[in-house]
């Protein structure tokens, strides 16, 4: 199932973490990404409601990650609470090779 919306709070937290790991200030990241510093600030605080595709791509490039990573789409899918066992197909074992007698040359 695909989420119906982007979790902007989670994206903002990821931007903050990546920015700090890169030892960048908000101003430096904004300059490198060509984005207004207030956009970075609002993203990190979780008050930004949406982000257009172009600034998202520039932000991902500046942080050296994919847009999927920024959008938190690259995480492993969550397992259902009560997973059903998967029936495994019957194992087919290879037949043993028949031994062949050497043909006599006469």
Short overview:
The chain has 106 residues and is mostly helical. The chain has helices spanning 8-21, 26-33, 37-45, 53-63, 67-70.
Give a verbal description of the structure.
The chain is an all-alpha fold and 106 residues long. The protein has a domain at 8-70: Orthogonal Bundle (434 Repressor (Amino-terminal Domain)). Helix content is 43%, strand content 0%. The protein is built from five helices and no strands. The longest helix has 14 residues, at 8-21. Mean pLDDT is 80; it is low at 76-81.
CATH superfamily of the domain at 8-70: lambda repressor-like DNA-binding domains
Q: For the record, what CATH class of the domain at 8-70 applies?
A: Mainly Alpha
Q: What percentage of amino acids are in beta strands?
A: under 5%
CATH topology category name of the domain at 8-70: 434 Repressor (Amino-terminal Domain)
Quaternary class: single chain
Tell me, briefly, the overall form.
Answer: elongated
Give the ordered list of helices and strands. HHHHH
Largest sheet report: none
Mean pLDDT: 80
The helix content, as a percent range, equals: 40-55%
Give the terminus-to-terminus CA distance: 73 Å
The secondary structure category is: mainly alpha
**Low-confidence parts lasting 5 or more residues at pLDDT below 50?**
76-81
The number of distinct β-strands equals 0
Rg computed from alpha carbons, rounded to a whole number of angstroms: 27 Å
- CATH second-level architecture of the domain at 8-70: Orthogonal Bundle
Counting DSSP H or I runs of 4 or more residues, the number of helices is 5
């Amino acid at each position: 199932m695909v989420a119906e919306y982007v979790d902007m709070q989670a994206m903002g937290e990821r931007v903050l973490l990546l920015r700090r790991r890169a030892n960048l200030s908000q101003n430096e990241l904004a300059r490198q990404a060509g984005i207004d510093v207030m956009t970075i600030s609002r993203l990190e605080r979780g008050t930004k409601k949406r982000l257009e595709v172009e600034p998202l791509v520039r932000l991902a490039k500046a942080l050296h990650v994919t847009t999927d990573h920024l959008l938190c789409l690259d995480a492993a899918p969550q397992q259902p609470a009560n997973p059903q066992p998967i029936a495994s197909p019957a194992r087919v074992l290879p037949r043993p090779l028949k031994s062949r007698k050497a043909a006599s040359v006469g």
